Structure formats: C-alpha cells, structure tokens
Amino acid sequence: MPTAQSTGIRWILIAWIFVIAAIACLDRVNISIAGQFIAREFHLSNIQLGWVFSAFVAGYALFQAPGGWLADRIGPRKVLAIGVLWWGVFTSLITFLSPHLTAVLGILIGLRFGLGMGEAVMFPASNCIVAAWIPSSERGVANGIIFAGVGVGAGLTPPLIVYFLSHYGWRASFWASAGLGLIAGGIWYVIARDTPREHAWVSSTEAKLIEAGLPKHDSFSLTGAKLSWGEILRNRDVLAITFSYFCYGYAAYIFVSWFFVYLNAVRGLNLKQSSYYTMLPFMAMAVGSTLGGWISDGLTRSYGKRVGRCLFASAAIGFAALFIALGAQVASAQLASLVLSGGAGMLYLSQSSFWSVSADIGKRSAGAVSGTMNMGGQVGGVVTASLTPAIANHFGWSASFLVAAALCAAGALAWLPVHTTRDEEHFLSSQRFDSETTGS
After folding, report:
1. In the chain, how long is the greatest CA-to-CA distance?
2. Cα atoms found within 13 Å of the Cα of residue 219, Cβ hemisphere only
3. Residues with Cβ within 8 Å of residue 47, at least 6 apart in sequence
4. DSSP secondary structure code for residue 177 in this structure
C-alpha cells in the first residue's frame, strides 16, 4: 500500500496553489509597474492612478466574505477555477481601452474593481483546501508556501513587466499575465478535489493521516454545521485578527502599490534600478512567509497554538513596525530599500498565523471566516492605495511609512488577547459537565 509520504497529494495541491497565488499577484502588481505608462497614455494624475489602484482593492475587499461563502458552499475547486478564468478576462480587457474614450477613468476603475472581485476568491478558497486537506500541525508550513507565492509573484513582476514594457509595451505584459492565469486555472481544475476522500490519487494511508490531524473537539465539526454570519461577526478572536489584518494589509499594500513609484520618482533610481530594488521586499516576503510557517509550526508543536500562532505573529508584526519606521529615515536609496524590505519580510513571518488561526476557528466555515479576516486586510489596502500619496503630498514620504509602522504596532497588540483554543476548551468543559451530571 502506498504511504502518505509516497502520495503526498496534499502537498501537490499546496504547490499548485503557490503557482496560482504567484500569477494572481502578477495580475495584481503589473499595473503598479506599468502605472506611469498607463497614466501618461490616459492623462491621469498620481491621485487618479491611486483611485484605479484602490478600485482593485475595493472589489477584492468587498467580495472576500462572499467568495469564502461560495467556496464553503460549492467547493474550492470550482470557485478557484472560475476565479482564475474571471481575472484573466478582466486583466486583458484593460488593453482594449483607448485614451479617446469618454469617461476612460471610470472605465479603468470599473475594470480594476471587476478584477478585484474575481481575485477575491483566491485565498478564502485556498484556506478551504487547507482546512480540508492539511493536518493542523502542518498548516503553518502549508500557508507559508501558499503565501510565498505572493512574494515570488510580486518579486518577479517588476523585471518581467519592465522587459515587456521595454520591448512590446504595457499591453503585452497584461496579455502575458492573463494567459498564464488561464493555463494555471485549467490545470488546477484537473488535479484538484475538494476533499481527500474525493481524490482518486490519495492513498488510504494519506487520507487517514489527514483526518487524524484535523482539529477535534468542536461542536461544529461534530455536528457538520457551519457557522452563521452572526457567530462569525460576534467572535472576539475573529474581530481581533481582522483588525490586525487591516493593519497588516495597510503596510503590505504600500509595497504592492507604491514602492516602485517611491524608488523611481522619490528616491531617484532609474527604471531598471527601480525594477530590481522593487524585487527585494517581495523576495523578503517569500522567504518570510515560508520561514514563518516553519517556525510557527515548530513553536506550536513545542508550546501550543497560543505561543506558536498568536504570540509569534504579534512579535513578527512588532518587528515589522520597527524596520519600516527605521527604513523611512535612511538617506541612501539602496540601504532604505534593504531596511524596508526587512520590514516586509518581518511582516510576512506572521502571514501563516493569520490563515492557520482562521482555519482553526472556522473549521467547516474556514472560507467565510478567512474571507471576513481578509476583507479587513484588503480594506487596509484600499486605504493605503489612496491615503499614502495624499500623506506624502502634504507631509512627505517618510510620514507615509511612519503611519504604516504605527498601524503595524497596533496590529501586533491586537494579537495578544487571541486564544485559538477557546472554543475547544469550552467544548471540553461542557463535555465534562455533561458527564458529571449524567453520571456517565
């Protein structure tokens, strides 16, 4: 009989979600690299370009919870495949616009909003896969691998897009992004299934290993029920990690939306230098995400989820605040890039904790819980896409980064009261009480 190690289908799925996450980030970040060319062609100011950036994040934020709900109801395999098709179409549609169109700014905003709607299903759906396929003790590493795709995709985007810009123009870069997504989505639909028991390639040994490692002792998994929206929105741990993810998203989106512009227009690096230095925070994110997942799982096995997930995330985001605050004060553009990249890496050390904890809280409603949390993060992205240039115009770019650092500090504090085993302990105490009163 094949062993769990010999099949390892769960890790094949996680690896392919890594690929899809990288392509999703390529579709998302390409406009920040090509933004100045698009702004020049369509006669947009930086403030208007910020509205276009914000439109994507608004669509992405607003459809996080609905996307998670859909993944819970009809399955992450179908939802993610449809999502990839959707965002491929909307990525390519922008290339057909002409600067002579009436209300072109409104159309750009509408298309980017639509792209955000499609991409919104990405991580809630992937968290449904994690909740169904990955034992609790492996979720830090699994989420670390998935979100390393964000760093790798965003890190490879600047040189790739600059190559297309230099040789073929910005439209070709969007066509390439869309084509890669359609291929990856088709492969996903072929290889993925919603649960291990539905997958013909999974050995019985691997299926048993997965089922044995899923969280126990919660009333929802025992009854097969899903959490209601009221239960999700009243859960104080969900509210705490959602606020922390808002702070996280605000800081992360500065790198996604404005770091290339900051290096090129503010720090004075040329186009080629800016593309290479823009890679640094995203490479740091990829390393931080994977390393953070590994450390988090190790601490969880040794000291429990309170230390391995919650306190580890708090410390990582706290150090991110320090690095971002220091990086904004450095005179050298190259050194500032390195220090700020350190902040991005520290921020992403905490990434797997957010998604592991939301899966543990949500169980069979992992899509809805993680979608709610991710909505908070994307609202932070909406705010930073437009607020960052506004703060920079009035107070300077250092102030923009200091605001991000202050929010990171607040996000670190928000983790302190989170207790991932609260529901489990409540269930166990209820079981003990029932046993004592019935005499069984």
Report:
1. 80
2. 11
3. 386, 389, 390
4. H
Confidence of residue 421 (pLDDT cuts 50, 70, 90): low
For the chain, what is the radius of gyration of the CA atoms? 22
Model pTM score: 0.77
User: What's the 3-state SS for 342-398?
Assistant: HHHHHHHHCHHHHHHHHHHHHHHHHHHHHHHHHHHHHHHHHHHHHHHHHHHHHHCHH
CA separation (Å) from 47 to 35, 105, 253, 335? 12, 12, 16, 28
237 Cβ contact partners less than 8 Å away, ≥ 6 residues apart: 357, 361, 418, 419, 420, 422
Average pLDDT, the chain: 86
pLDDT in tens, 139-152: 999 999 998 898 78
Q: How far apart are CA 328 and CA 339, in angstroms?
A: 9
Q: Cα dist. 239→373, 377, 415 in Å?
A: 8, 12, 10
CB 362 within 8 A of CB 131: yes
Give domain status of residue 218, yes or no: no
CATH number of the CATH domain containing 70: 1.20.1250.20
Q: How many domains is the chain partitioned into structurally?
A: 1
More confident of the two residues 177 and 16: 16
CA distance 382 to 66: 18
Residue range of the domain that includes 345: 8-199+232-424
* Both structure tokens of 387: 């607020």
| Cβ partners under 8 Å of residue 268, min gap 6 | 333
Residue 222 has pLDDT above 70, yes or no: no
- Please give the distance of CA 122 from its chain centroid, rounded to a whole number: 8
- Taking only the tens place, the pLDDT of each residue in 82-128 is 999 998 899 999 999 988 888 899 999 999 999 999 999 999 999 99
Helices 366-395, 46-62: crossing angle, 10 deg rounding? 170
Q: Is residue 74 part of a domain?
A: yes
Whether residue 104 lies inside any domain: the answer is yes
With respect to residue 217, please indicate whether it lies within any of the assigned structural domains: no
Among 413, 408, 411, which residue's Cα sits nearest to residue 321? Answer: 408
Whole-number Å distance between alpha carbons of 29 and 430: 49
Q: Is 6 exposed, middle or buried (0-12, 13-18, 19+ CB in 10 A)?
A: exposed
Distance between CA 324 and CA 231 in Å, rounded?
36
